[in-house]
């Protein structure tokens, strides 16, 4: 069974166990999907309402984008597990040149999926900004929770990049992926914070 197809209770049971997957990457993808789904709920509670008919086109567009991001993040739960498996096996190899090569390839592969998760979380934050701006006031708190989830997923996925990059021999590649992750956190983490703070100020 795919991880993304598990019941919540089953996924949590797998997550708390000793198996290497699902781990932080898969959890980040799921949290990102939850955040984007909450954002989409704001859209669902807004679209078609007479009070918000002036922004119905914007809401519809945001919802379409949100659906795509949710689907992509859900698929990344299993892709992260698949990408980590070779690295898990590489750690069991005897030390030597062959192990070093296998490890380097596995570390690079294990960093690629979290990087995509981060990119999708950045998209989610952009969309959530729109839901917070145009969405129904009765669901405003949900937009704030969505932003908090998206940021948590963004920063969580980054840690999976950092830990793999730290072990890479190719420091040029490692520095490049770290820099990319840093840039996304700096820009989109701040944007998520702004949404959360603005929502908090409006609902208190």
Task: Give a verbal description of the structure.
The protein is mostly helical and 204 residues long. It has a single domain, classed as Four Helix Bundle (Hemerythrin (Met), subunit A) (Up-down Bundle). It is built from six helices and no strands. Helix 2 packs antiparallel against helix 3 (56-90), helix 2 (24-44) packs parallel to helix 4 and helix 4 (97-134) runs antiparallel to helix 5 (140-166). The termini are far apart.
Topology:
Blueprint lengths: L7 H8 L8 H21 L11 H35 L6 H38 L5 H27 L4 H33 L1
User: Helix segment count?
Assistant: 6
Q: How would you spell out the order of helices and strands? A: HHHHHH
Largest sheet: none
- Residue-averaged pLDDT: 94
Q: What attributes does this structure have?
A:
mainly alpha, Four Helix Bundle (Hemerythrin (Met), subunit A), 204 residues, 6 helices, 0% strand
Short description:
With 204 residues, the chain is an all-alpha fold. The chain has helices at 8-15, 24-44, 56-90, 97-134, 140-166, 171-203. It starts with 7 loop residues before the first helix and ends with a helix.
């Amino acid at each position: 069974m795919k991880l993304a197809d598990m019941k919540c209770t089953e996924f949590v049971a797998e997550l708390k166990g000793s198996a290497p997957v699902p781990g932080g990457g898969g959890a980040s993808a799921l949290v990102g999907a939850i955040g984007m789904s909450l954002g989409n709920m704001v859209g669902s509670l807004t679209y078609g309402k007479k009070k918000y008919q002036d922004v119905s086109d914007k809401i519809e567009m945001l919802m379409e984008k949100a659906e795509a991001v949710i689907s992509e993040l859900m698929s990344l739960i299993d892709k992260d597990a698949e990408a980590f498996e070779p690295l898990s096996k590489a750690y069991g190899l005897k030390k030597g040149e062959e192990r070093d090569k296998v490890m380097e390839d596995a570390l690079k592969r294990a960093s690629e999926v979290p990087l995509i998760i981060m990119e999708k979380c950045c998209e989610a934050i952009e969309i959530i900004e729109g839901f917070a701006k145009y969405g129904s006031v009765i669901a405003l708190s949900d937009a704030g929770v969505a932003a908090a989830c998206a940021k948590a997923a963004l920063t969580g996925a980054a840690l999976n990049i950092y830990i793999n990059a730290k072990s890479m021999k190719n420091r040029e590649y490692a520095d490049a992926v770290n820099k990319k992750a840093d840039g996304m956190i700096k820009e989109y983490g701040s944007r998520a914070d702004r949404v959360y703070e603005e929502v908090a100020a409006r609902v208190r």
